[in-house]
Amino acid sequence: MNTTPTPHIGAKYGEIAETVIMAGDPLRAKMMAEKYLDNPVQFNNVRGMLGFTGTHNGKPVSVMGHGMGIPSIGIYTYELYNFYGVKRIIRTGSAGAYHPDLKLGDVVIGIGACTDSNYGAQYGLPGTFAPTADFAMARAAVEKAEAMGVRYKVGNILSSDVFYGDSADGWKAWQKMGVLAVEMEAAALYMNAARSGNEALCICTISDSLVTGEACSAEQRQTSFTNMMEIAFDII
Fold first, then answer.
1. Residues 163-202 pLDDT 10s
2. Sequence-distant contacts of 54-58: CB under 8 A, at least 24 apart
3. In this predicted model, what pLDDT tens digit does every residue of 75-103 receive, in sequence order?
4. Active-site annotation, residues
5. H or E element, residue 226
6. Best label site of 37, 104, 124, 132, fewest CB within 10 Å?
7. Which residues contact 31 (CB under 8 A, 6 or more apart)?
8. Residues 77-105 as b or e (16 or more Cβ within 10 Å = b)
9. pTM reported for the whole predicted model
């Protein structure tokens, strides 16, 4: 039975590549398509969540937005993995630093993703599932970051359901457990990849620090966020 287009993606089967690089902001996805893809063709505009397919160094690749938070990325990546034959997804996004050594513009490669979300309850597991990235992609990302001379850390990140938290110091409990940074999507991406038997990786750029209170300017975001994009497109 033909399951495409889906309720949230207007593409037909075959219009999306097996590798998809995603960003929360659909306009950032559009920018990546224009900057890194040869002959990009738009395949989605449903709900304004832009998606494009083209080639990068001769390899088919798609770029798409995923919105903010676990429910949003959960829907889009589920449909990509289960209805469009996508095999690997790389999320590129921003994160807030928990680790004192992380500076603005540093790259974090999330080998694991803790979460305060109840997303994993749907699987009915007799315990707590630990969402993890694909090791081969994570290793390739580390090698590329080192070759570029980019400051980076690899480790656990937190995918939080809350952006404006009621507790000003709640993040410190995660910091005590060695969590490097906080974002809002990777755990759902990793769970969807695991359940569908596919691959996933989250690469983030530090946009602010809960340790120092610093935050990137618009200009810093524009110039430093390209490092994670270069890494992502190099390892596909």
1. 998 988 999 999 999 999 999 999 999 999 999 999 999 9
2. 56/233, 56/236
3. 999 999 999 999 999 999 999 999 999 99
4. 208
5. helix 226-234
6. 124
7. none
8. bbbbbebbebebbbbbbbbbbbbeebebb
9. 0.96
